[in-house]
Design brief:
This protein is an alpha/beta fold. Among the domains are: about 220 residues, Aspartate Aminotransferase, domain 1 (Alpha-Beta Complex); about 220 residues, Type I PLP-dependent aspartate aminotransferase-like (Major domain) (Aspartate Aminotransferase, domain 2), CATH 3.40.640.10. It is about 40% helix and about 15% strand. It has 23 helices and 20 strands. The strands form four sheets. A nine-stranded mixed β-sheet has the order 2-12-3-11-10-9-8-4-5, sandwiched between helices. Strands 13, 14, 15, 17, 19 and 20 form a six-stranded antiparallel β-sheet that branches. Strands 7-6-18 form a three-stranded mixed β-sheet, with no helix packed on it. The longest helix is centred in the C-terminal third of the chain and has 29 residues. It is globular and about 65 Å long. The relative contact order is 0.16.
């Protein structure tokens, strides 16, 4: 480790709050279990009669409110209870959490690099982390953090060549043809396809599937192939800005679609049901066979954690809409509760981000109901991919001069490729050298490799829906309650944090959208909160809430909270409603999240109770001869 990096880390530890320092001092190097691991083991106790589901839902919110720091407000980050004391109170409030101890065992055994790095990953949702076992299988001596915003930590070894778990190649042709007839696929690709369909409970008799480069590609493929010339409307239900949905809307408009969106009521961001129903339900008394358009439904918000009733799918189908279900924000095993035997959407899109390893980072899947495929138009599209087994990819590298598409893809995956002939030749030489001595087994002998690729899915399957859902429910609701307990000192109860969307709720999703405010009530920019979190080894995201609706009584508040997206349209008199919204910080809990993760986030956010916290961070950063980040 370089001297300046070492001094920066030491200085950072000195400046940390006592609570964050406590989190950092645990034995977390993978050589011993999590300090909480043994406490999760279920105790033998007399069985109690189970309450009904309805009673559990009724009691959950009130029990959470009365159990998490009752009648207490924290105005100083140094006054927070210790992590151990907080965890003890947490398990009293949520005794069912102890039943999820197997998650901690999997995290300790398969993902101990998360603890080794002292890093908390709260910028992904679903089952998106690669395991350290997968990295070992590929004989890669370095580890990385599964984060979209945090780089490789300074103490990690020098970067070396990554050997990918598999490769991808882009398939020519159009979506309709690929869905109807498929194409040449390796045994590896076929096995992965079957494993995914089994994991999602999707029947091969009812649906066809293609792999896409990412979820944005999947949405664009549907938009470019859907017959908007005759089925004119595209209706979406998103309370946040999504790159994939923006791409879909742009492509749909070019194809003649009228784009519409549901709206969400301020301040709880509840779905405007009456407006959505009016857009879905046909005003014509006589039903016509002609389809009205495409209804895109996400089941729940990946930013606010709001869940939406499945009833909307039925209403859409009954009124002549094709239905596309966006399951990218669903947690592990959530599809088990979806019930494809009852609801059969025309399209289903899911994303497997880093499930199958770090390199490449993943792909998306687009499912189409076989009875719907003939409706699609034949159009030139891009974004469909095939999966290449690593053995075939390695063989292509060692046997070719580097002009093959697959070789180019492998070279680009190393993370160090640069434009220019010289860099590429060095990269190719590195690849060949790295692969010398590796046995080139046949594709038919890759069962063990496929087993490793699917390890993340197997782990989730072993845990099941109930375990994963109960764990996420306890963690996210404790975090919501704890954040709401932070209050600025010497004010009339000015809260530090404002949460958008559902607060404490039994059936909320494991994501939260919030903002941090100073003692004067001024919002601290989300990008600044994210960057400061990075310095504390916490990965957060930030996004943009939009399609908000304000009742008359909130019009004055609207002027204070609503803002333009990235100030893109400054000086433009024609304001698009979609450009209006609120920039927010977001945190999302994956299935491996534990209490230590959420406590660490709480302790970090509490530091903003110090009115000089941001100034101190700026001084600390510049005093160590570091380049000041722009937002500071």
């Amino acid at each position: 480790m370089r001297k300046d990096q070492r001094s920066m880390k030491e200085e950072s530890q000195k400046m940390q709050s006592p609570c964050l320092e406590e989190v950092s001092q645990g034995c977390l190097h993978g050589c011993c279990p999590s300090p909480f691991l043994n406490q999760h083991e279920p105790q033998t106790k007399a069985s109690k009669p189970r309450n009904s589901s309805a009673a559990c839902r009724r009691d959950f919110a009130s029990k959470t409110t009365s159990s998490i720091f009752p009648n207490t407000q924290f105005t100083n980050h140094e006054s927070l209870p210790s992590m151990q004391d907080s965890f003890a109170e947490f398990t009293k409030a949520y005794p069912q959490y102890s039943d999820t101890y197997r998650v901690d065992q999997i995290r300790s055994r398969e993902y101990y690099h998360l603890s080794f790095s002292y890093h908390t990953c709260l910028d992904y949702l679903g089952i998106g982390l690669f395991s350290y076992s997968q990295l070992q299988k590929q004989e890669c001596p370095k580890y990385r953090i599964a984060s979209s915003s945090f780089p490789v930590p300074p103490e990690s070894p020098p970067p070396v060549l990554d050997i990918p778990f598999f490769g991808v190649s882009y398939k020519p042709g159009n979506l309709k043809t690929q869905l109807l007839h498929g194409g040449v696929a390796s045994e590896f690709e076929s096995v992965i396809r079957k494993r995914i369909m089994s994991f999602l409970n999707v029947s091969e008799n009812d649906y066809s599937m293609v792999f896409t480069a990412n979820k944005t590609s999947a949405f664009k493929l549907v938009a470019e192939s859907y017959p908007f010339q005759s089925n004119r409307k595209l209706l979406t239900v998103y309370d946040y800005e999504s790159e994939a949905i923006e791409a879909m809307c742009n492509s749909s408009e070019k194809n003649g679609a009228k784009v519409m969106s549901a709206e969400f009521s301020w301040p709880r961001l509840r779905l405007q049901s009456s407006k959505l129903r009016n857009m879905l339900v046909s005003k014509e008394k006589k039903k016509k066979k002609k389809r009205r358009g495409l209804f895109v439904f996400p089941l729940h918000s990946r930013m606010t954690g709001a869940r939406y009733p499945y009833l909307w799918m039925s209403i859409a189908e009954e009124n002549g809409w094709h239905v596309l279900i966006d399951s990218c924000a669903l947690g592990p095993k959530d599809m088990d509760s979806f019930g494809l035997s009852l609801f059969r959407p025309d399209f289903l899109i899911c994303s497997f981000y880093k499930v199958f390893g770090e390199n490449p980072s993943g792909f998306a899947c687009l499912f189409a109901k076989k009875s719907t495929i003939p409706v699609l138009e034949t159009s030139s599209t891009s974004g469909i991919i095939g999966l290449i087994p690593s053995q075939k990819l390695f063989r292509a590298v060692t046997e070719s001069p580097g002009t093959d598409t697959e070789v180019e893809y492998l070279a680009s995956q190393s993370g160090r490729i640069e434009k220019g002939k010289t860099t590429y030749e060095i990269q190719h030489a590195e690849i060949v050298e790295k692969l010398k001595g590796i046995e080139m087994s046949e594709v038919s002998e890759s069962d063990k490799g496929i087993e490793m690729e699917c390890r993340g899915l197997d782990e989730v399957d072993s845990l099941g829906l109930v375990t994963i859902s109960n764990r996420a429910r306890c963690l996210i609701n404790w975090l919501v309650s704890a954040l709401l307990k932070l209050q600025h000192p010497n004010t009339n109860g000015t809260p530090l944090v404002r949460i958008y969307g559902p607060k404490v709720k039994f059936d909320r999703g494991p994501a939260i959208a919030f903002n941090v405010f100073d003692w004067k009530g001024e919002k601290i920019e989300p990008v600044l909160v994210q960057k400061l979190a990075d310095r504390s080894n916490i990965s957060l995201s930030y996004g943009f809430l939009h399609h908000l609706w304000f009742a008359d009584k909130y019009q004055e508040e609207k002027e204070k909270v609503i803002e333009r997206r990235n100030n893109e349209a400054d000086g433009n008199k024609g304001k698009d409603k979609s450009d209006m919204g609120i920039a927010v910080v977001t945190a999302a809990l994956g299935f491996l999240a534990n209490f230590q993760d959420i406590y660490k986030l709480w302790a970090f956010i509490a530091q903003f109770l110090d009115a000089d916290f941001v100034e101190k961070e700026r001084w600390r950063y510049t005093s160590l001869n570091q380049k000041t980040i722009e937002v500071l």
